[in-house]
Specification:
With 339 residues, the chain is an alpha+beta fold. It contains eleven helices and ten strands. A hairpin with a 3-residue loop joins β2 and β3. The mean pLDDT is 94.
């Protein structure tokens, strides 16, 4: 999730755990710090855009390593404030803050390597977008009231914020499962055979959902809003570049994206250059994670670092489309050609 959300979650968890044992500002402050720490790995440049993507949310998001780090941070914080007697409570609070960060990240589609060093599998439920006010706002209000209001009212508001945000996550999973059922039935009725189905929310909400159905040589993209007047889904078909991928199966960047995206990727060649795109983030024709893997000659002469060449599209047009499509208006996504 975005940094503001992680700060709000960290503060809320720390305030709820520490309670009246210490000043609210202390627990909110250190909750925010601990909630931010795992994402500092984004500052590491591995010299290759693909590596920067697949190694993000790695060791710094692993439950095992964060559990080892929690007592050290608790020891430092408790002694900094002269609260050595509260060491165990700080330990619990900061451990909860540290582990809820990657657990929340795992609710997005990106991929979080929770179980390192035992497995580097990137977990991603994909039921919430990386920025979602429906989840973040209750946390911000709760923490704000805990800092500003009387202790009793503030702690209740903070607890309510955590409850509402958690309930929102549950809602997102239930909505995702419902839309997945609608999508599978639509594919069956239209005779579209696929191997995998991805169901993720459109930005900033859990009402409008993006669907990607991947087959052996092509993929289909569609959208469904919970406010649509019917379960009919219009699927648009695109080539995956399977033959190109087979010819370049030895390219490391391609292999890494294929594995990290769980098979939701496409490959294409332009002017002798190889491109691979993660289909999970973005939508046709604009994707955030599209990589230039170079030409055959460049890779043969000592290799070539991958470059990120993704694009986000027209923000204003995209937000307008999301708002109107969310309410059930059948519109073609911006940038998509109408055939």
């Amino acid at each position: 999730m975005d940094s503001l959300t992680q700060i709000a979650l960290g503060s809320a968890v720390a305030v709820a755990t520490m309670g009246r044992r210490t000043a609210v500002w202390k627990s909110a402050l250190w909750g925010a710090v601990a909630g931010t720490l795992p994402d500092l790995d984004a500052l590491i440049d591995h010299g290759d855009a693909v590596l920067n993507m697949v190694l993000h949310r790695g060791e710094s998001h692993a439950l095992f390593y964060l559990t080892l780090f929690a007592p050290l941070m608790a020891w430092l914080v408790s002694r900094l404030h002269g609260e050595a007697a509260l060491f165990k409570r700080w330990w619990l609070a900061l451990w909860l803050v540290l582990i809820t960060h990657p657990l929340l990240d795992a609710m997005t589609v990106y991929g979080t390597q929770l179980l390192l060093p035992f497995t580097n599998h990137p977990y991603g439920v994909g039921s919430v977008f990386i920025i979602d006010p429906g989840y973040t706002v209750p946390l911000l209000i709760g923490v704000g009231m805990a800092l500003a209001a009387s202790s009793r009212v503030g702690f209740k508001a903070n607890a309510l914020g955590l409850l509402l945000s958690s309930a929102y996550l549950v809602w997102s999973v239930l909505a995702q499962q419902h839309v997945a059922q609608v999508a599978r039935e639509s594919l069956r009725q239209q005779g579209i055979e696929v191997n995998q189905l991805l169901v993720t929310p459109a930005p900033f909400n859990t009402v409008l959902w993006r669907l990607v159905a991947v087959g052996s040589t092509s993929y289909h993209e569609g959208h469904h809003s919970l406010l649509d007047d019917s379960a009919e889904i219009h699927w648009r078909q695109y080539d995956r570049g399977t033959d190109i991928a087979q010819r370049h199966a030895d390219v490391e960047g391609l292999r890494r994206i294929a594995a990290f995206s769980h098979g939701f990727y496409k490959v294409d060649e332009r002017h002798g250059r190889l491109f691979v795109t993660d289909l999970r983030m973005g939508q046709e024709p604009s994707y955030v994670f599209r990589f230039d893997l170079g030409s055959v000659a460049e890779r043969a002469n000592g290799g070539r670092a991958a470059h990120l060449v993704g694009e986000r599209g027209d923000l204003r047009a995209g937000l307008t489309w999301i708002w109107r499509r969310m309410w059930g208006e059948r519109l073609t996504p911006p940038g998509v050609s109408v055939h």
